[in-house]
Specification:
single chain, about 230 residues, alpha+beta, SH3 type barrels, 5 helices
Amino acid sequence: MDAAQGGDAGQLWVTAKRQLQGKARRGRAWVSEEGNLYASLLLVDPAPADAIGQLPLVASVALHRAVVAAVPEAKTRLTIKWPNDLLLDGKKLSGMLLEAAQIGERHNIVIGCGINCGHHPGEGLYPSTSVAESIAPLEPAALFPHLAREMADALHRWNRGAGFAAIRDDWLSRAAGLGQPITARFSNHEKSGIFDSLDEDGYLVLRGQNGTQRISAADIFFGETAETR
């Protein structure tokens, strides 16, 4: 956010060979070995406040398209796990964290991406992999131009929220676990059911025995580990 505080107009990319204080969702650490792509994009006033929650889905569609452009062999093996993780052969390939800050009259968003090109964590909340392990070696510098191009295209199509319907369709066509049993894990409880869809705001729609529930934030696991309700 330093660039935002300095008045940067946005659309600024920052990349790193490794991160010493990488962060994941819910305050978890992100393993940041050299040989992977770590890239962050600053956006300034990207959309009205009620559309900002769609950005993780917009960014994950862009990231999916970027990886496929760089590694065509991944096309049929790469999916998106709600809301914005990429899975390669069912294993976590990338993570994303969005951070927001209001500076004066400007609403600033940083989209931070970490893609496992050459390395991946050993043990974690989810099984993980890298492009090198599952397909072939991939240099971060070869992936980044695709990411920058696809992110610009996705943001243009999203059009500050006006084009979210098309982004939503793109996301659903790449979704992992759609129509299948999942468990949503919250801080102090779980809910299981069928991953029914995404709503118009990008919330996950979970269908249980007592109807549907909109989920805005949770850790998602495939299969049922809690009573379906």
